[in-house]
Amino acid sequence: MRSIVIFYLCYLLCLCLSVACVVCVCVWNSRWRGGFAWDGSALQFNWHPVLMVTGLVVLYGNAAVLYRIPLTWGHNKLPWKLLHAAVMLLALILSIVGLCAVFDFHNAKSTPNLYSLHSWIGIAATALFAMQWVVGMGGFLLPCSPMYLRKLLKPVHVWMGIGILLLSIAACISGINEKLFFVLKGNSGGVQPYSALPPEALLGNSLGVLIFAFGLVVLKILSNYEWQRPDSRPEDMAYTPVLQEENE
Amino acid sequence: MRSIVIFYLCYLLCLCLSVACVVCVCVWNSRWRGGFAWDGSALQFNWHPVLMVTGLVVLYGNAAVLYRIPLTWGHNKLPWKLLHAAVMLLALILSIVGLCAVFDFHNAKSTPNLYSLHSWIGIAATALFAMQWVVGMGGFLLPCSPMYLRKLLKPVHVWMGIGILLLSIAACISGINEKLFFVLKGNSGGVQPYSALPPEALLGNSLGVLIFAFGLVVLKILSNYEWQRPDSRPEDMAYTPVLQEENE
């Protein structure tokens, strides 16, 4: 009972941090960066942080912890698997549109793509996410996928899922840091430099801290053994003969 | 048996990545950034990445996985606790000297300290690490520390330890990204811009990828239930009455 109360406190924190991250990235880009457009200008770039934080971090993290909600444990797993796949698909689509925004912006300015460490980490996160979604769809949702394949795939799927979350958080932290250095140079009229910590810098830094805190809470929820859906716990996976059917 | 073979493969990978990270950051700063000094110049700054990667990431990660080595399980835990504390202390000292290098460099140039997101994440990692070391020393090594306190502290110590590792990796990725943008501007004679991916950029980006891979392997080793020292596994922690002594 105590464990379930602590879970719901963590889950509430996860939801509050989700809202805080999305609000913070939207306010930053609408109020301080001039808003949004899809015309190859800096306003198009502004979609990039908003969509990556919303898709690759917030929706992704929320979809990852879905099976941990004790309220879902008494039900058939299939609708929750469909919801997990659907939210992940939405997260993936937002991330891909977020990448298109920055590629288009770079191409319009003839700036090369994919050279910075931030871009390497971010593109790895999105590419692995797309691969993970396709393999997860084929392995866990297609009825023809055999049980032994699901058992083999599951620990890889969970581990890869955590790796993608960590990549996306590292990409966000490095991206926010880079963006604030780019735009807060303090050499154009009225712009205070990043080093003077103007309100925009405080907001951007706080967004980075919120994203990190969100990732830590998601990781905590995912790694607590007692919060795993009972039919997914390691002892069921480890001690069930590989070819025996289980309530997967 | 199979689990132990996989552990040693992971551990070998962890050691190889440790060496690769240290070699990479040393080569980058000695060959491409001009080497080292302690005179307030850019050569003093070069100690910062070398000491942070070596201390806060590589030594820290290696000290964290020490108890997971099956070879140590048959022995008394105390010498391994002392080794864990000693390597962590060395990691902490290197990190603090690494911070002094950058503070001195900033002060000599009258650049403000601790304004960027990178610095917020990095200072949080080092401050929490120092706190974690002091609390760990008092809680787990002082003979007067009562058993119920050790039991209370242990999950917090493990969880905080993972959080610090994630903070330090995020700090490294954002720091390398920032440094490469700063030094590879392409506007001074003979320097190719970051966007042209000159050899230094490839080396710096590769260092970031190696650090991330190292963190992922350490996290994998820490999170595998079968690789926990038998007297530290959760069932022992959970089912032993709080005041009953155990082979801690």
Q: TL;DR of this structure?
A:
The structure is a homodimer of 248-residue chains. With 248 residues, chain A is an all-alpha fold.
How would you describe this protein?
The structure is a homodimer of 248-residue chains. With 248 residues, chain A is an all-alpha fold. The first copy, chain A, has one domain: Up-down Bundle (Four Helix Bundle (Hemerythrin (Met), subunit A)). Helix content of chain A is 71%, strand content 0%. Chain A contains eight helices and no strands. In chain A, helix 3 runs antiparallel to helix 4 and helix 6 runs antiparallel to helix 7 (199-223). Chain A binds chain B through residues 111-112, 115-118, 120-121, 159, 162-163, 166-167, 169-170, 173-174, 176-178, 180-181, 194-197, 201, 204-205, 208-209, 212, 215-216, 219-220, 223, 225, 234, and chain B through 111-112, 115-118, 120-121, 159, 162-163, 166-167, 169-170, 173-174, 176-178, 180-181, 194-197, 201, 204-205, 208-209, 212, 215-216, 219-220, 223, 225, 234. Chains A, B: The chain crosses the membrane at residues 7-30, 50-70, 82-105, 117-144, 156-176, 202-223. Chains A, B: It is an enzyme of class 7 (translocase). Chains A, B: It is a multi-pass membrane protein.
